[in-house]
User: Fold this.
Amino acid sequence: VQLQASGGGSVQAGDSLRLSCAASGRSFNDFVMGWFRQAPGKEREFVASINWNGGITVISNSVRGRFTTSRDNTKNTVYLQMSSLKPEDTAVYYCAARLNGNINYAYWGQGTQVTVSS
Assistant:
């Protein structure tokens, strides 16, 4: 499956932003979708995931209450809605996919930059 993330940009603290990740090449329903981010000089960290039908989401403690994830299987797209953004949310955000039942994310998008200024 190929993944294409979009929607990043430069915003002010407190603003909202929605990232999208479009998938192609294989049945979207076969995958759990995840969001990760990597800030300069830091390791990549898990942000959120959503199961194949959107019924189960997992949100990292660091963004819980501010970020949500959803998916539209008719559009083969997963979203990351980010609200109340903070400067520490600045990072490259990646979407990833793992087959239902698998542990590892085998497919990764190219990343989209989110910059939050104070």
User: Anything to note?
Assistant: The chain is about 0% helix and 55% strand. The chain has a mean pLDDT of 97. The two ends are 37 Å apart (CA to CA). The first strand starts at residue 2 and ends at 6.
